[in-house]
Amino acid sequence: xxxxxxxxxxxxxxxxxxxxxxxxxxxxxxxxxxxxxxxxxxxxxxxxxxxxxxxxxxxxxxxxxxxxxxxxxxxxxxxxxxxxxxxxxxxxxxxxxxxxxxxxxxxxxxxxxxxxxxxxxxxxxxxxxxxxxxxxxxxxxxxxxxxxxxxxxxxxxxxxxxxxxxxxxxxxxxxxxxxxxxxxxxxxxxxxxxxxxxxxxxxxxxxxxxxxxxxxxxxxxxxxxxxxxxxxxxxxxxxxxxxxxxxxxxxxxxxxxxxxxxxxxxxxxxxxxxxxxxxxxxxxxxxxxxxxxxxxxxxxxxxxxxxxxxxxxxxxxxxxxxxxxxxxxxxxxxxxxxxxxxxxxxxxxxxxxxxxxxxxxxxxxxxxxxxxxxxxxxxxxxxxxxxxxxxxxxxxxxxxxxxxxxxxxxxxxxxxxxxxxxxxxxxxxxxxxxxxxxxxxxxxxxxxxxxxxxxxxxxxxxxxxxxxxxxxxxxxxxxxxxxxxxxxxxxxxxxxxxxxxxxxxxxxxxxxxxxxxxxxxxxxxxxxxxxxxxxxxxxxxxxxxxxxxxxxxxxxxxxxxxxxxxxxxxxxxxxxxxxxxxxxxxxxxxxxxxxxxxxxxxxxxxxxxxxxxxxxxxxxxxxxxxxxxxxxxxxxxxxxxxxxxxxxxxxxxxxxxxxxxxxxxxxxxxxxxxxxxxxxxxxxxxxxxxxxxxxxxxxxxxxxxxxxxxxxxxxxxxxxxxxxxxxxxxxxxxxxxxxxxxxxx
Length: 745
Known about the structure:
Elements: E1 2-5, E2 20-31, E3 34-46, E4 51-55, H1 62-70, E5 78-85, E6 88-89, H2 95-101, E7 106-109, H3 113-116, H4 123-135, H5 139-152, H6 158-161, H7 171-182, E8 189-193, H8 201-218, E9 221-225, H9 229-235, E10 238-243, E11 246-252, H10 253-258, H11 263-270, H12 311-315, H13 328-332, E12 364-365, H14 370-375, H15 380-383, E13 405-420, E14 426-442, E15 446-450, H16 457-466, E16 472-477, E17 480-481, H17 482-486, H18 490-498, E18 500-503, H19 507-510, H20 517-527, H21 532-545, H22 562-573, E19 580-584, H23 592-609, E20 612-616, H24 620-626, E21 629-634, E22 637-643, H25 644-649, H26 654-662, H27 668-671, E23 675-678, H28 707-715, E24 731-732
Parallel strand pairs: 4-9, 4-10, 7-8, 8-9, 15-20, 15-21, 18-19, 19-20
Antiparallel strand pairs: 1-23, 2-3, 2-5, 5-6, 10-11, 11-12, 13-14, 13-16, 16-17, 21-22, 22-24
Helix pairs in contact: 4-5, 4-7, 5-7, 7-8, 8-26, 20-21, 20-22, 21-22, 22-23
C-alpha cells in the first residue's frame, strides 16, 4: 500500500536570490480583428524549491505566460519586458540559444503528452536524446539514465517500457514519462502547464506525487498552471490569480484561501463544489464572460462581472498593491524587506501605474474595493447574488421506496469482440466493457455514476439510451421491462424514447453547427410530430427556462460561449418533457465559474420539474454536490452503491476510499492534512476476466491482509452486501468492508 500526507512543499529560503524573475511581461498576438494583448504587465519572482501556482479561467493568460518564458510562442508574437533565469536575460535570444536552455536549465511539462511526444520514436529514445544533447552522454549512459528516470516516476518494468512508443502508454503513464524527461538534466525551473487536466483523480494524485518527487530530486522551482484550485491548494506555496492577461491577486496559499481580497478570486473559490461539504447550497456563479483582449479600455477588466463595481472601476484600472488595511511593511515583514509605508492605508510605496514584484509585495490585489471585500469577510454569498433554488424535497415527499422507479438495472452485461487482421479479420477474444452493473433511480432522484476511465460508465449509458435488449441481466425503465418493450419493435420503444433524453460532454460536438438554436431545440419536437404552433411556443419557453433570451434563437451555436452552449443542450434535452435526463460529464469541459452556473441550473430544473438524473462524472466533488445516491464502477462492475453522504462518509470498498482520498479539497489547511491513497498502475485490461476480486491487483487493503484472507480475495468474487447488521441500502462488493477504514490510518 502507498499513502502520502499532502504536506506543503518545502518553504524556500527567502534570503536567496530568485532563480526566475519576470518583469513587466507583455505578449501581443496580431489577428485580423486587431492585436490581442494576451499578457499585460506580469511580474513574477521564483526561488529555488518554491512552488508557484497560477490559476484563472481559460484565456486569462496562464499558459501564454509559461510559453513566453520558454520562448515557444510564434515568431509573429510581440513579447516585451524582461525574463531573467539565474540572472541571465532570456528575451531577445534566438531559438538556437534558447534550445540550449530548454530541457537543461528550464523544462516544461505540457498539458497533452500524447501530442508533446513524437509518435515515431520510443519513449526511451526521446528521454535519452535530451540527456545526450545537454550532458554529452553516450548512448548507453543516456539509456541507463532514461531507465532510471522511468523507475523514479513509477513506470512499471522500466527496462522493458523504455522501448515502448507513446501510444503504448496510458494517459497517466505518458504524463509520468513527460515529467521524467523534464527532470532528466536536473533543471533549475520546471513549468507544468495543466499537467493533471483530463486525468482520473487516481492518476492525478500519482502525477502530483511524481511532480513533488521531481522537485525534491532536482531542487527545482516549480510553476504549476491549473484551473483546479483544489490541486493548487495542496501543492503551491504561493498563488497568483490571473484575469484578462494580468495578475489580479497574489498571496501565500493559506492567506489567499483564508482572506481573498479580489471579488474574482472569491468567485472562483465559491464556484467550486467541495468533497467535504454536506450541504447542497447554490454555488457562486460568476456572471458574464471574460472581456475581449483587443483594445481594452482603461478600466477594471472585471467590472462588467463584478457585483461591487463602482464608477472608479469603470474609469481606472486598479494596480496590483497591498489591499487597504494591509500595509506594505506588514506584508513584506516575512520577506525581510523594509518599506516606509502607511500601514493604515497601505498606500505609501505604491503609486498609480506601478505594481510591486509578486514575491516582495506579499498579499496584493488589483481592486479598488478591497475595503468592502474585507468588510464582507470574503463571504461569496454576501458579495455575489446566489440563485434561489427550491427545496427539491418538496417534490419527493414520499419515502424513497414508495416513489415510482425510473431505472432499475441488475447484472447488466455488454461484451465486444476483440478482432485482429486487416483483410481476414478473426475474433481473438472479448472485451468485457460492462460485466455486472446494477442501477436504481427513483422519481426526483439523482444517481451519480463514478469510476475511472475504462470502467464502463459510457457503455452503460449507451446501453440504456439505445433501448436494446440487454445481452445479459435485466433493465427496467419506468417499471417496464426493456425486453418486453423491444419485443414489440419500434412501436414498443417509441414511448420510452420520449421519456428519456441525454446531455453530452462536449456541446460543441453535439450541437449541429449548421442549425440555428431554434432548429436545434425544435428538432426533438419535430421528431415526435409536434405541430408548428406548439414548437413556436415551446422553444422560447425552453430558452427562458435555461436562462437564455428568446431573441437569441436565430443565432448559431458557435456564437455562444461554452456554458451557454451547454445550456442550449439542456434546453434541447428538456424539449419533449422527459422524466429522466442522462448527463454524460456535462461540466467537465467548463471553467469552474461556468460550471457553477450549469450545476445551479440543473438543481433548479430538477426541483421545478421533478426530474430524475443519471449523472456521470469523474469529479467526485461534483457528484457530492448534485447527487442523492452514488454508484461506483470498477472494470465494468458496480462495486459500491448507496446514499451519497453515507458512501462518502463511510466507504465500504477500498476503491471508493482511494477515489475520495485522491480528490483535492480547495483549502490548503485541510488538503495538506489529508492522506492520499495512491493506487499502483492503471486498471487491468477489460479483455481479462480475473478470478476472485478483480480489484485485488491494485487494492491497498489486499496488500496488508494475512495470507489466509488474501486467498479468499483470489478465489471468490465478492457480492454486494451491506455491513453486518446495518442498512441494506448501502452495499459494497468487498469481502472485508469493516477493514476499509484502516487503509488510510
